[in-house]
Amino acid sequence: MRTVEYGRTSLGKGKATMRYYLTVDTYVCGAGCELESYGVLVSGEDGETAAVRCITPSAERIEELLAVLLRGRVTPVSLKDVIEDWVSGLCDILI
User: Fold this and answer.
1) Domain that holds residue 28
2) Which residue in 47, 48, 9, 42 sits closest to 23, CA to CA?
3) For a surface tag, which of 46, 53, 80, 86 has the fewest beta carbons within 10 Å of its beta carbon?
């Protein structure tokens, strides 16, 4: 798995900064081609981290999700719930 930092946001004055990362997993198919699957990782200054890998094969969709996470200041604690809502289409209000 590789990670690429997508962005950072502060939770408020004097509060923690969250870092958001794109995760990339590469798989080799039987025919020798490579497929990529994208996920996200959120990390706080206190060392708390959460990741959900292999959410989508679409780079465009994962960028949409990362923008929602950054804009919503999602923390590692709530990451999985927000992703579940996003996958099921309930996060349209955040976009």
Assistant:
1) 2-94
2) 42
3) 46
Do residues 37 and 27 make contact, with C-beta atoms less than 8 angstroms apart?
yes
| Rounded Cα gap, residues 38 and 60, in angstroms | 10
pLDDT-above-70 percentage for the chain: 94
Residue range 2-20, pLDDT digits in tens: 999 999 999 878 788 999 9
Identity at 2, one-letter amino acid code: R
As a whole number of angstroms, the distance between CA 95 and CA 60 comes to 14
Can you tell me the distance from the alpha carbon of 53 to that of 39, in angstroms, rounded to the nearest whole number? Answer: 4
Of 42, 89, 90, 44, which Cα lies nearest the Cα of 66? 42
Query: What whole-number distance in Å separates Cα of residue 91 and Cα of residue 64?
Result: 11
DSSP string covering 25-41, please?
EEEE-TTS-EEEEEEEE
Q: How many domains does the chain have?
A: 1
Token pair recorded at residue 17: 């900064």
